[in-house]
Amino acid sequence: MNKAACAVGLLGALLGGISQARAQTPGTWGTWFIGTVQLPGTPENKWGGYAEVQARTNGLFSQYFYNELKGGLSYDLDKNFTVMLAGGRYATYKPREVGEGPLNTEARLWLQITLNQYMERLRVEHRYRLEQRWFNYSGDSTGTRNRLRYRLNTFLPLNKSAIGPGTVFLSVYDEIFLNPKGPVFERNRVYAGAGYQFNKHLTAQAGWVHQANYNLPAYKQGQFIPQNTSAKNNVVLAFTYRLGRRAATTAPEHLPSQQD
C-alpha cells in the first residue's frame, strides 16, 4: 500500500471520528490551526530556532477568536538535550466581533529544556518550561503572572523503526500547567493524534486535544463558590516545515513535536 495513501486514510479516519464525537456533544468543540517553521540544530551547528503562527476557533472550523505569534532560539547541549529561549504575542477576541479589537493581549517569555529518549521504536520527550507573562486587558488594566509547565510526549512510528521521510506515526502527550499563585494545578492538556512526514522538510499532523482549566474557589456575596473546571475539545491541524542546513553531513532523527 502506498505510504502517503495510508497516512491520508489514517488522518481521515481520525478526523471522521472527531466529527462524529462532536455531533454527539454540540458546542464543546473548537479548532486549532498551527503552522511552524523550524531550523533544528545539527552535530555541526548546535544553534537552531523556530517561528510559529497559530489560530483558534470557538466552533469547529468557525468563530475565529484567538491567535499566537511565537519564535525562539535553541541550542543543543547534547543530541538529546536542548535549551531554548523564546517569546510570543497572544491575542483573544470576542467571537463574531473580531473587528472591535482584542479583549486582551499577552506578551510571554519563556525558558525551556527538552530531553529526548529513543527506545527501540518508542520515542519519549520530556519538556520543561518556565514562563513569564504580561497581560494587557481592553479595560486598560494590566497584570503579570508566572507559570511552570511540564509535557510528557510520546511518538510511535508505525511503518518504520524511526521517524523520517515517509513515516506514519502516532503521537500522544499530556501537559500540566502550574501556577505559583494558585490554583497550583491551573490547566491540563491531553492530545492524541497521527501524522505523516512527507520528506525531510514537511510534516503534517491531525489530532484531538482536550484542555481543562481550573479556577480557584472563591467567597462572594456571602456564598462559597467551590473550585470549578471549564473544559473544551479541539481538532488540531498542524503543519511543520523544517529548514535544512547546507553544511550538514548527517541527518539525525528529529521528533515532530508541536511547539505550542
Automatic annotation (TrEMBL):
Pfam families: DUF2490 (PF10677)
InterPro entries: DUF2490
UniProt keywords, alphabetically: Signal
Signal peptide location: 1-23
Protein name per the record: DUF2490 domain-containing protein
Originating organism: Hymenobacter guriensis
Lineage: Bacteria, Pseudomonadati, Bacteroidota, Cytophagia, Cytophagales
